[in-house]
Amino acid sequence: MPTLFIRTIITYFFLLIALRIGGKRQIGEMQLSELITALLLSDLAVSHISREDTPLLFGLIPIATVICLEIICAFSATKNNMLKRFFDGVPSVIIKKGRLDVGELTRQRMGIEEFISEARQQGVRDISDIEYAIIEADGNLSVFQKSVTENGISHIVIADGCMNEHGLSTLSLTEESVKSKLAGINVSVKDVFLYTVSDSGRETVILTSGENVSARFKKGKHK
C-alpha cells in the first residue's frame, strides 16, 4: 500500500510538470492531437500506478515520449502548412456573407436544428441575422451577426511565415500575387508573422519583429 501511494504521488507531479511543458488548453478548445495525448496520458498513468511489480521508470518513459511527440507535432504544424492542416484541420464556413452552405453543413455532419441551437446559445435570434458562421478547427462555432460586421471578417493569408491555403482560396488570391505585393515593400513571406485581409479589403500586415507595416503596405512604399 505505501508503494502504491508513493507511485501515485510521483506520477501526479510528473504529469503536472509534463503538461506544463507541453502547454494547456481547456477541454473544449483541444485540437485532435491534444485530445489523443490527454487520453493516452490518462491511460498510461492509471495502468502503471497499480502495477507494483513494474519499475516506475517503465511508466514514466512512455508518458514523457507522448508529451515530446505532442510538442514536436505542435511545433512542426506552426512551420508547415500541410502538417497544420493534417494535425489541426481547417475552419469550415457554414454561412458566408449571409448565404448558408448546405453542403458544408452536411459534410460536418451537423443538422440544421443543431446548428440553430448552437447559434441561439450565442445570442442569435434568427438565422437570417448571421453574416458569417464558422466551425473552427477545434470544433467550436463562431458566429458574426450582420449588425456588427462593418468590414466583414478577416481571413488569414500568411501565418508565421507560411501561406494559408484556406485563406488564399477564400479570397481568390494566389501565392504569386501575395509575394508580388510583399515585394513592393521589400518584405518576403518568411518575414511576415501575420497577414490578414477582410471582406472589405482591409489588410493587416505584422512582421516577425512585431512591427505593424499595414499602413506602408497599403501605400505600397518601399523600405
Report on this model:
This protein is α+β, with helices and mostly antiparallel strands. 48% of the residues lie in helices and 17% in strands. The strands form two sheets. It has a four-stranded antiparallel β-sheet with strand order 2-1-3-4. α1 (2-22) runs parallel beside α3 and α2 runs antiparallel to α3 (56-79). 13% of the residues are buried. Residues 24-28 have low confidence and may be disordered.
Summarize this structure briefly.
With 223 residues, the chain is an alpha+beta fold.
For this structure, the quaternary state is: single chain
Distance between the termini: 70 Å
| Number of continuous helical runs | 9
Rounded to an integer in angstroms, the radius of gyration calculated over CA atoms is: 23 Å
Rough shape? Answer: flat
Low-confidence stretches: 24-28
Q: Bin the strand percentage.
A: 15-25%
**Kindly state the mean pLDDT as a whole number?**
78
Feature tags:
four-stranded antiparallel sheet; 223 residues; 8 strands; 9 helices; alpha+beta
Layout of helices and strands:
Blueprint: H1 2-22, H2 32-49, H3 56-79, H4 81-88, E1 92-96, E2 99-100, H5 102-107, H6 112-120, E3 130-135, E4 141-145, E5 154-159, E6 162-163, H7 165-171, H8 175-183, E7 192-198, E8 203-207, H9 214-219
Antiparallel strand pairs: 1-2, 1-3, 3-4, 5-6, 5-7, 7-8
Helix pairs in contact: 1-3, 2-3, 3-4
